[in-house]
């Protein structure tokens, strides 16, 4: 019995060592583009793009399961209290769904907790110096503060020699409240306010 357990461990270690030898080396470079202002995305809805480039030296994901061995994952997003993710992502009409497949995973809430959401974009293997660009839509559903979402690549079949360029954080905020200074009614109210202030503090000069 003890010998069988030892043999099983040896086999498992051998398989792990063999797979590590077979794994390629692929440096995936990730770039996320939103319409942000000073690093913060303020629009409630909009479009974004995700670009992944394989800097080599090997083909990325060639030993994975087709058609989508590589994924770009977003960090966990919380529920807004109304059964809606605080931030939602989906493929846009200009996205090539055969090469960029958007998916959503809804996590079961822990006891006393809320639902969480996981978004990912699945892509095929990438040749050396090959680039793929995915196009998506986003919408925000929170009313205060900011939310930071980190996107990162996941390629379990290769070793990435430069892990610093395969993740990027995106900050979402609340759009500022616009003041309708060009509206006629607002201008009339503003003029009346200045008139009231002027009458209240006006003191005639005595010569």
UniProtKB/TrEMBL annotation:
The chain crosses the membrane at residues 185-202. This is DUF11 domain-containing protein. The keyword Transmembrane helix applies. Keywords: Membrane, Transmembrane, Transmembrane helix.
